[in-house]
Amino acid sequence: MNITVYLGARTGNEPVFRETAAEIGKWIAKAGHRLIYGGSAIGLMGVLADAVMEGGGEVIGVEPQFFIDDGFLHEGITKTIPTATMAERRLLMMEMGDAFIALPGGIGTLDEISEVIVMAALGKHQKPCILYNKNGYYNLLRGMFDQMTEFDFMTKEARGRVIFADTLEDIRRAVGDLQDQQE
Fold first, then answer.
1. Is residue 113 a contact partner of residue 83, using CB atoms and an 8 Å limit?
2. What is the Cα–Cα distance from 168 to 173, expressed in whole angstroms?
3. Residue-level pLDDT at 78
4. 3-class DSSP state for residue 84?
5. For residues 42 and 34, what is the distance between their CA atoms, to the nearest angstrom?
6. What pTM was computed for the model?
7. Distance of alpha carbon 58 from its chain centroid, rounded?
């Protein structure tokens, strides 16, 4: 299964963020999944890719050419797919993914997972959209989605497609449910 992960190109200021990226990477490799991510060697992105590769997993990076030109490419990953734009990157990562996970990150992470959530809300895919809420990182966004639903700007069905996972077990369960449906 292709697991598309969106996460920070920075490591953040709490050690738990690095630990979380490594934890997800180890799980992806051990479970025999393939990582689809942004292709960079820096920040949590590099931590995640390294953990998958250390576990013997496959890593596909989708990286805009301008980031490659700026030297951000992770040279050790299995395969790199260059794109011309961020929009092309987002689309390709979405097309390749069987499940989507957002780890802690900045505005780029939010941009990428938001597009996946919008497409799920529009019924364009039935794939899990998971925000790893480690240490409450996505609590405010969860509250915002709940408020959108309360004020009828988001349907209950669309809200139900967004999974806020507090543990790796929550993620495994959401992805495992998908595997069960595919078999």
1. no
2. 9
3. 97
4. coil
5. 19
6. 0.94
7. 16
